């Protein structure tokens, strides 16, 4: 696609409206001419068509944005006139029927053909002409909630089943969330900001990775009130039900004496199994018995299940506790406007401890519709995990319990200041903008890091000065008192070039894996595997797994 001329302040927004139980949620990507308004770039990868299912507001499911923001230019993320090569935004009205329980939406008209003689893949050259050397490039970036981690696990299950993931199923930023990139922890109550950079293959391009690391989990943690909202409809039979039971057991193993558990099951109707149960300690026998008794039958009534679940969560709410609703489902249900508003209302209480929703997808691998969980966790501001096997429940809810459940920093906003001659060429996060108001701050869990991986390009390699500085600034609020805090790191390009790149190397390998899955070509898959192997001289088990999975792809 053609790049937007750098002298034009252009934000292209395509607004896709998906009917969710009769309500419309709006998904924006950068595709609307708004003249001099702030510039926004979002993940433009295509989404699946939906049928009676649901979608998230804001961003599609691909995980990488080809963009031209910076250096006094305008956004060219997404598709539309002037966009460079990118995956293109998903149109929710595309043809076909998705998962869930309803009919697919009608097919949209195909996009218009380019004018005769026009090369839609030709990118306009990025030059320094017209740029103001006194004005640095300031961008605000988002990596989505750093504990949304479903996409790589679903992709893993597909690959092990001999199935190639669809491009829309691959959200690159979730791969960076799921696989562990080890940054040194911050001091308690603080965040640690760590930028790393290295030259790209093309002159004037650089791969820049930013890690924003929280402090390690505290011991003992705060007490917690957990409200299970469990799908027991007929479609949950077999492996999905095994994984749901494993979720309850894994969380039971992580609870402490005095923690409180509520449980409601939902199918055609709903049933309150536990209300205000105070656990005796890890592996509470009452909770384990409740897990054993779960069974699949009947239809789906998510709306009432959520309503009752939130009534229980509110009844046993305690501002001094972690308060979480845990929704476990195979995704074959609709979320209507009432449920979406209910979830958002409880998650957005800015004056006290909110009730966040954690989504757990159970499969089955070939019939799973992940849009339900993407919607509810987007609204509920909680983690989204997928279980490809029973053991994954213990990995996420025992080994990474604090990372999934707790908050170390609220409303984290990350600001990146680059020298005047750089632009954002490719962003492997969720969205970025020249305006802070356009980017929703995200929460960060203890023991976790927000990872921002991107490629920046200089307008001319000759003007890049390694004595120029790059600054990353993180602003957030403390989780209990909501005290505003800030951390920053400023360094010259030369200092960063001479610094450690261990985390950057692993981050690039993870990105190469995800992008190769989206490309799906033999060339891309084999090149990514070579990069992963080269990045792993010490036998990192996660990189070992990624290399194995790439070789399982049907096109490898």
UniProtKB/TrEMBL annotation:
Keywords: Signal
Keyword flag Nucleotidyltransferase: no
Keyword Signal: yes
Record field: compositional bias (Pro residues): 108-118
Domain of life assignment: Bacteria
Pfam families (alphabetical): VWA_2
Compositionally biased intervals (Gly residues): 50-71
Signal peptide (UniProt feature, chain positions): 1-29
Chain ranges of the VWFA domain: 225-404
Annotated stretches, region: Disordered: 36-125
PANTHER family to which the protein is assigned, alphabetical: CALCIUM-ACTIVATED CHLORIDE CHANNEL REGULATOR, ZINC FINGER (C3HC4-TYPE RING FINGER) FAMILY PROTEIN
Official protein name in the record: VWFA domain-containing protein
Species whose genome carries this gene: Sorangium cellulosum
Lineage: Bacteria, Pseudomonadati, Myxococcota, Polyangia, Polyangiales
